Amino acid sequence: MKSMKLIYPLALALAVTLGATGCKHQPVKLTPLPGSPQATVGGGDAGGPLAPSQPFTPDGGGGSGLAGGTGIPVADASLFDGMKEQRDALASYTVHFAFDSAAVKSSEKSKLQAVASALTADTTMKLKIEGNCDERGTDEYNRSLGERRALALREALAKLGLSPDRVKTVSFGKDKPVDPGHDESAWSQNRRGDFVELLPVSDAPKP
Fold it and tell me: Cys-Cys link to 176, which of 117, 144, 172, 207 (CB 3.0-4.6 A)?
């Protein structure tokens, strides 16, 4: 009788063991993230690659003819035909920007007032604004940021009463540093907007 009592528990344990080993292993299903069929919860850094940023265009990419979403019409390029650059006259009014920003700082607004006053005093003069960045970041991103900086200065001048038809913008990104260094001292000088006088050829200073 004792042997029979031992056999039944052993047989039951054996049956349970065989049943467990005979079952197929089912993989754990992971929930795909919306918009990323390959990405799953727990995979990757943020569930998949980030969407590429859209390059900046002067008219905002919508073909509206407005400069970068500012609501200010883009100046016709023909308005600047037959004009000569005079770089020295407004060189002391260069505006500097914070890292990765196109916002005009309060400390720089007196320079904008001086530029607006200079162009108001001479109605034959027009203006080119050059947007620049420091060396960090991709070429494409810095071209976009440089253009946003130039357009921010153009918009600020328009608010001071200067006609946008007298101002054109260009971005050099990180291609034209004034300081070739690789530290914050250099970078702070390279994050800038330069003002260049445009004069009719007959009025331009003789070389």
Answer: 172
CB contact at 8 A, 155 and 116: no
Measure the CA–CA gap between 68 and 65, rounded to whole angstroms: 9
The pTM score is 0.66
Torsion angle defined by CA atoms of residues 43, 44, 45 and 50, in that order, rounded to the nearest 10 degrees:
-120
Q: How far apart are CA 106 and CA 97, in angstroms?
A: 11
What is the average pLDDT across 21-35?
39
pLDDT band with cut points at 50, 70 and 90 for residue 4: low
Alpha-helix runs per DSSP H in 23-138: 109-121
Q: Within the chain, where are the H helices?
A: 2-22, 109-121, 139-159, 184-190
Its sign, for the CA torsion 13, 17, 19, 25, is: positive
> Of 113 and 25, which is predicted with more confidence?
113
Residue 182: its pLDDT value, please? 97
Residues 6+ apart with CB under 8 A from 188: 96, 134
pLDDT tens by residue, 104-123:
999 999 999 999 999 999 99
With beta carbons less than 8 A apart as the criterion, state whether 25 and 19 touch: no
* Section 144-163 average pLDDT: 96
Backbone angles phi, psi at 80, to 5 degrees: -110, 10
Helix axes 139-159, 109-121, angle to 10 degrees: 60
